[in-house]
Amino acid sequence: MSTLTVDTPAGPSAAAGVVRETFALAGRRLRHLRRAPGRMVGLVMNPLVMLLAVGYLFKNAIVSPHGGAYQEYLMAGITAQVGLAGVGPTAVSVALDRRAGLMDRFRSLPISRAAVLTAHALGDLLIGLGVLVVISLVGLGIGWRVHGDPLSVLAGFGVAALFILATVWVGIALGMTVSNIESVDSIAALGLVVCTFLSDAVFSASAMPAWLRPVVEWNPVTAVADAVRHLWGNPVQPGSGFPGQHPFLVAGCWLGLLLAGAMTAALTSFRSRE
Q: Which residue ranges traverse the bilayer (predicted)?
């Protein structure tokens, strides 16, 4: 394990010191990934397999809502899955750091407590954005296109990036609160499957049983995917309820709740172990 030396911030330079600490610790996370590139491959493969299997192999067997290419409907759901697929690796990484005593070592150093977990979030966010770039390029290769103006397209990627950040913090909170690594991995895998298929990421809510539609419509993955579809000008099937009529409001509320809740849980757990 590489050593980390960080000066303690003092006085008016405290904020700058926290920033330096955060980037130093985030660099450690990225260096570890470079030494184990197989983890990056694993992060890419989950949404990539879904994109190729459903969006390419079975594209002629699925009808897109409101017409248009099914790849254009699916792509927003796959960007949400990039975030979901990162929960498990993030949680396992945090749990492994706890098991190895690395978190205790960080707490013993004269550095900001918030910087430790924020750095982990920053490193995994950058990884998730890299996966998003790969998925977007593959999507373009199999027929996905955007039809909005450049600002709207960028805003769509911004919503996807915020969802990745929120799920990174969910992974950190999971890794900080669940001790057993096998349990962490199982919970994250179950969440990936449930949140994907109980949303309109792959299939429209109108194709679901009537009793299940409210669950699908209020799923945060549905809200994020629908907001991204609107911004990209891709096919969307508006629901009859409040979430379908106000996708941006619901997506914003979900992103805020996920970020606030996960960050609070993670930082509280970290500090309670001192």
A: 38-58, 73-96, 117-142, 154-175, 187-212, 248-270
Extract the tokens encoding 45.
């493969």
- The predicted model gives 238-255 an average pLDDT of 88
Say how many CA atoms lie within 13 Å of 122 toward its Cβ.
16
Assign 3-state DSSP to the chain and report helix, strand, coil percentages, each to 5. 80, 0, 20
CA distance 173 to 116: 13
Token pair of 128 as six digits: 């998730």
With b meaning 16 or more CB within 10 Å and e meaning fewer, what string describes 131-160? bbeebbebbeebebebebeeeebebbbebb
φ/ψ (deg, to 5) at 37:
-65, -15
SS3 208: coil
DSSP letter for 111, please: S
Answer yes or no: are the C-beta atoms of 187 and 119 closer than 8 Å: no
- Nearest to 144, CA basis, from 228, 223, 221: 228
Task: Decide if 216 contacts 208 (C-beta within 8 A).
Answer: yes
pTM of the model: 0.87
Write the pLDDT tens digit of every residue in 12-32.
465 666 677 677 777 777 777
CA distance 168 to 263: 10
Winning range, highest mean pLDDT, from 98-102, 190-194, 269-273: 190-194
| Helix 181-197 vs helix 220-232: crossing angle, to nearest 10 | 50
Q: Which two tokens stand for residue 119?
A: 């750095």
Count CB atoms within 10 A of the CB of residue 80: 30
